[in-house]
Amino acid sequence: MNLPKISLRFGKKTVKGLPKFSREEYILWSAVTFVVAAVALLGYDAYIFYQDIIERAAGLPPATARSKFSESDIDEVIMLLDERKEKFNEILLKNQ
């Protein structure tokens, strides 16, 4: 049986310097990309499974929620947005 030889080279250079890919190289690199993506997704899925199912079954306390913003920070942002809205409405009224 005469099978085509598939190598991991990036491609043969043509006269203009651009790589010329064969059909086998397209198939190979597509398969490699698929395998890498599948392994990454399965690893992420395993991490979520561990965090959600295994730790809950072990009776570990749930992780505490950490907030990046305090209530005063959120109130300040809301106040700034309200001021911006009022100024915008004033500008609209002036232009009408």
Automatic annotation (TrEMBL):
Membrane-spanning parts: 26-50
Keywords: Membrane, Transmembrane, Transmembrane helix
Record's protein name: Uncharacterized protein
Species this chain originates from: Candidatus Adlerbacteria bacterium GW2011_GWC1_50_9
Upper lineage: Bacteria, Candidatus Adleribacteriota
